[in-house]
Amino acid sequence: MSRNRQGEWVWYELLTSDADAAQAFYEKVAGWTIARAELNGEPSPMDYRILTAPDGRPAGGLMKIPEGAPMPPAWLGYLGVDDVDSTAAAVEQAGGAIYMPPHDLPGVGRFALLADPQGVSFYVMRGEPDERSTAYGRYELGHCSWNELITPDDAAALAFYGRLFGFVEEGAMPMGAMGEYSFLRHTSQSEPFGAMMPQQPSQPVPAWLFYFRVPDIDVCVAAVKAEGGRIVTGPMEVPGGERVIMAIDPQGAVVGFVAPKP
């Protein structure tokens, strides 16, 4: 299986203040099996945990925020790239920022933490194994199904991600005074992987929001509440016959879930 194209989503990662509590929450809510990562058949020296979907394939990772890091709990996404160093330089030249310079993680790959010109954080990565990531799966249970960009300047964001990562707009849905919900597709794919929308006054910071697929949205809502999370929006029906919610986990990270309409 070939490597992912430049700009395709390859990984999702939860940075949290309490790894054990977050693991307990997401195992109940998302149905993941979560266990410490291994390198060369041995437990990883750092406490990095792999989120495994019901199909047995990895869906993402989980780790505690490093001590002293000035960031709240959050989900971040990784975009696959052909060359991490040149991409980081291009992002900075386009008005973005390099939060963590390119560096290697033996056995995993080379990556960097960047921000787009509107201040939205994301990783770029070139994996060491020459194989295709399975983290994103539009209709696959337990995998990220939708990637949504909340941005203060959707036109500028589209130009940035289009030029550097191959994103194109695939139609839009008007939302009245809230602007347009513009669907995003990668040039290598036949259908949208997500969308972008203008940042609203109720949304304190621009960000990528990730929706993970669950079997039943009502069961998911009940689990979020029972495990100490909070529902922000939904359940809400969206085009395509699906229902979604946006939630905040007990440590404060924003996360979305999606399921088919019954």
UniProtKB/TrEMBL annotation:
InterPro entries: Anthracycline_SecMetBiosynth, Glyas_Bleomycin-R_OHBP_Dase, Glyas_Fos-R_dOase_dom, VOC_core. Transmembrane segments: none annotated. Residues 8-127, 140-260 form the VOC domain. PROSITE patterns: VOC. CDD domains: SgaA_N_like (cd07247). PANTHER family: GB|AAF24581.1 (PTHR33993:SF14), GLYOXALASE-RELATED (PTHR33993). This is VOC family protein. It comes from Sphingomonas natans.
